[in-house]
Amino acid sequence: MYTCDVVIAGAGIIGLSIAIELRRAGATVAVLDRGEPGREASSAAAGMLVVDDPETDPKLKPLARISASMYPAFVEELELRSGIKIGLENRGTLYVAHGANDLPADPLSTADFRTLEPGLADLSRACFLEEQTVDPRLLVQAVLATAKNMGAAVHHEALVERVSMARTRDLEVRTTAGLYSTATFVNCAGAWASEIMGVVVPSRPVKGQMLAVIPSGYDLRHVVRSREVYLLPRRSGRILIGATVEEAGFDKTVQPEVIQKLHQAASSLVPSIGKAKMIEAWAGLRPGSPDGLPVLGAGSLPGTYVATGHFRNGILLAPATAAIMSELIQGRQSQIDILPFLPSRFSGNRALAG
Ligand SMILES: Cc1cc2nc3c(=O)[nH]c(=O)nc-3n(C[C@H](O)[C@H](O)[C@H](O)COP(=O)(O)OP(=O)(O)OC[C@H]3O[C@@H](n4cnc5c(N)ncnc54)[C@H](O)[C@@H]3O)c2cc1C
């Protein structure tokens, strides 16, 4: 039997970011992952830190703003502690609208968006958004190295099966790598969070497919996004094109015809991308919740907590989530309003039965 103050299920961006905050507070922490840490949704993400998108739920915007404002310090600390350069960028986003009332900011004149992004198709309506981007694969490497350097024990191939109350009133966490005794358990198992017995979480997988291309002849300067598709330039010269939003269970198959459609949709925004060579395509499973909002707070058993359901925004929301969960676990009230995200909002909801 292993013993520590906090056991976290799931070594994605959420579980690892929380582990860092808890180590800072002096707790002993074990982060257990059923596979390789960081290899699921967190490595599949594009890395846009989206705050003002017409599709962002108004209830999420305050948390999104807080988390985006925490990002420069979050990245600076991770870079210092891990020695890994993460690549936080401030290129900004050109949001392209099709409908009349669809722009989240004042429209740019055609002359302005032509100057900003000469490769854009002949579109009538676009606006500029001050948004940051990050490379999630580098971010996850840095967060993993930082958690370890700060003394968190991170174990791979350790699937958490069940959490129950022990006679000592501590929690017993049964895993495929042995039994853990702990006062506190946090379910950060992403799309799989509902599979851990004893800690009820209404989460489900939402598949996202995307691709990367190497453009020839045109360097995209900004993120370009519409309701249907986005293009995100990386410093390496790659352009990421994403992403589908599919209810496909735990299927992570990459479908060539779907990837081709995404590529075509991207070239309707930036025509030269149509000729760009595809170098990689992949799929990931976002953690979805019944109302599309994160699920943050106390779990169904005393001493258990839940931090999942970050859906399309888990990279963005990691620093704020870590701060919130660390405060709650230390018995303090969160400085950030988490009322819209409490797990108890689903009480009586049939989704809880799963
Ligand atoms: C295609 C795509 C594009 C995206 N783009 C963006 C974006 O631009 N910006 C943004 O902010 N977000 C984006 N996201 C969303 C973001 O990736 C997720 O919200 C975020 O990664 C969720 O992090 P997580 O740690 O909860 O989940 P994950 O990274 O999936 O981590 C969960 C971990 O739990 C482990 N696990 C599961 N079950 C168990 C168990 N029983 N025991 C132990 N471990 C377990 C898994 O192996 C996994 O490593 C995107 C997602 C996808 C798929």
Describe this entry's structure for a reader.
- This protein is of the alpha/beta class and 354 residues long.
- It folds into 2 domains: 2-80 and 136-203 and 290-353, FAD/NAD(P)-binding domain (3-Layer(bba) Sandwich); 93-129 and 205-288, D-Amino Acid Oxidase, Chain A, domain 2.
- It has helices at 13-24, 41-44, 61-82, 110-116, 136-149, 256-269, 314-329, and strands spanning 2-9, 29-32, 48-49, 93-96, 126-129, 132-133, 153-155, 160-165, 171-175, 178-187, 204-214, 223-225, 230-233, 239-242, 277-288, 295-298, 304-308.
- The strands form 3 sheets. Strands 1, 2, 7, 8, 9, 10, 16 and 17 form an 8-stranded mixed sheet that branches. The protein has a 7-stranded mixed sheet with strand order 5-4-12-13-14-11-15.
- Strand 12 and strand 13 form a beta hairpin.
- The two termini are 29 Å apart.
- The structure holds flavin-adenine dinucleotide (FAD).
- Flavin-adenine dinucleotide binds at residues 9-15, 32-35, 39-42, 44-48, 159-160, 188-192, 195-196, 208, 210, 242-243, 284, 286-287, 308, 310-316.
Question: Helical proportion?
Answer: 25-40%
- Could you say how many structural domains there are in total? 2
- The sequence of SSEs as H and E is EHEHEHEHEEHEEEEEEEEHEEEH
Cα-based radius of gyration, to the nearest Å: 21 Å
Largest sheet: 8 strands, mixed
Number of alpha- plus pi-helical segments: 7
Bound molecule types = flavin-adenine dinucleotide
Class inferred from helices and paired strands? alpha/beta
Which second-level CATH architecture of the largest domain applies? 3-Layer(bba) Sandwich
Question: What's the shape?
Answer: elongated
CA distance, first residue to last residue? 29 Å
Please identify the top-level CATH class of the largest domain.
Alpha Beta
Number of strands: 17
CATH superfamily descriptor of the largest domain: FAD/NAD(P)-binding domain
CATH topology of the largest domain, which one? FAD/NAD(P)-binding domain
Oligomer: single chain
Report the portion of residues in β strands. 25-35%
User: For the residues shown, what is the average pLDDT?
Assistant: 94
- Can you tell me the residue ranges where pLDDT is under 50 for at least 5 consecutive residues? 349-354
